[in-house]
């Protein structure tokens, strides 16, 4: 299966979340797996985290792989702060978050 790769922006605020949603819909509608590079993330707000959680559910529910690679320290900290670092949340190449 083909995998679309997207690099996340350094700052994912409300405006960036809206733009990211549009970007995530492209591979979903095309029926491809998605790999998100989170290495550049310096700050991500709750709306961005919620979008990624929803996208993971949508992709996986449709049978498409959804992974987050190279999560930055800031990304992992934001997941923990938002209590999204437990089981059944977001999977990264660093483990299940």
Features:
alpha/beta, 3 helices, single chain, three-stranded parallel β-sheet, 97 residues
Task: Explain what this protein looks like in three dimensions.
The chain is α/β, with parallel strands linked by helices. It has helices spanning 14-30, 46-61, 73-81, and strands spanning 3-7, 11-12, 33-37, 43-44, 66-69, 91-92, 95-96. 43% of the residues lie in helices and 23% in strands. It has a 3-stranded parallel β-sheet. The protein has a two-stranded parallel sheet with strand order 2-4. Strands 6-7 form a two-stranded antiparallel ribbon. A hairpin with a 2-residue loop joins strand 6 (91-92) and strand 7. The N and C termini lie far apart (24 Å).
Map the helices and strands.
Blueprint: E1 3-7, E2 11-12, H1 14-30, E3 33-37, E4 43-44, H2 46-61, E5 66-69, H3 73-81, E6 91-92, E7 95-96
Parallel strand pairs: 1-3, 2-4, 3-5
Antiparallel strand pairs: 6-7
- Given as residue ranges, the uncertain stretches (5+ residues, pLDDT < 50) are none
The whole-angstrom Rg is: 12 Å
Strand count, sense and barrel status of the largest sheet are: 3 strands, parallel
Overall 3D form:
globular
Distance from N terminus to C terminus (CA atoms, Å) equals: 24 Å
Helix count, per DSSP? 3
């Amino acid at each position: 299966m083909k995998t679309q790769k997207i690099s996340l922006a350094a700052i994912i605020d409300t405006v960036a979340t809206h733009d990211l949603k549009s970007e995530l819909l492209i591979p979903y509608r095309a029926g491809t797996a998605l790999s998100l590079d989170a290495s550049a993330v310096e700050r991500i707000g709750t709306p961005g985290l919620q979008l990624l959680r929803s996208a993971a559910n949508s992709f996986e529910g449709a049978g498409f792989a959804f992974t987050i690679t190279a999560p930055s320290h800031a990304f992992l900290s934001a997941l923990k702060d938002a209590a999204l670092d437990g089981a059944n949340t977001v999977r990264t190449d660093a483990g299940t978050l």
